[in-house]
């Protein structure tokens, strides 16, 4: 079902979340039918991998089931609240998968790839670990914006949509994040 949010939809989502907070499974099914396709589309666009997007969507709905009672109007529109849960769950899974070796990586370090020896590798690793350390110093939104932009190739418009933030804000996050990275790497 296509989903366009208006005041009626907003009220319906609010009502469903209140019912879910009281463990109403039928309300949860209705909520899923209303918003799952839109949330999945956002997860898939962020992740670029169907299996990761499916896992993120499932995890997001589990969180919605358990945290429906925590939702309040001051947290924004219900759909935005749920999309934020899905977005952050997708980004968390993307980070976790990058940190873990993938199946079949065992023994790859023994293959000769024709590149430099241990000294060159050590210098390259030192630079990578320095960059990783500097990335860890950024705020979550700065880091996510930079990584999605440079490693996933997202445009400013795609980032704006994926992060549910105005394009000017996204540009500021990237600019400030890159300036902070530069300062950190120059130390």
How much strand?
Answer: under 5%
Shape: elongated
Q: Give the number of DSSP strands.
A: 0
Name of the top-level CATH class of the largest domain? Mainly Alpha
Number of domains: 2
Distance from N terminus to C terminus (CA atoms, Å) equals: 53 Å
Structural class: mainly alpha
Query: Main sheet, how many strands, which sense, barrel?
Result: none
Structure notes:
This protein has 187 residues and is an all-alpha fold. It folds into two domains: 7-99, Rna Polymerase Sigma Factor, Chain: A, CATH 1.10.1740.10; 128-186, Orthogonal Bundle (Arc Repressor Mutant, subunit A). 73% of the residues lie in helices and 0% in strands. The chain contains eight helices and no strands. Helix 2 (25-47) packs across helix 4, helix 6 packs across helix 8 and helix 7 crosses helix 8. The chain starts with 6 loop residues before the first helix and ends with a helix. Residues 99-117 have low confidence and may be disordered. Residues 131-181 form the RNA polymerase sigma factor 70 region 4 type domain.
In short:
InterPro entries: RNA_pol_sigma-70-like (IPR039425), RNA_pol_sigma-70_dom (IPR014284), RNA_pol_sigma70_r2 (IPR007627), RNA_pol_sigma70_r4_t2 (IPR013249), RNA_pol_sigma_r2 (IPR013325), RNA_pol_sigma_r3/r4-like (IPR013324), WH-like_DNA-bd_sf (IPR036388). By secondary structure, the protein is mostly helical. It has helices at residues 7-21, 25-47, 50-67, 78-99, 118-137, 140-150, 156-162, 167-186.
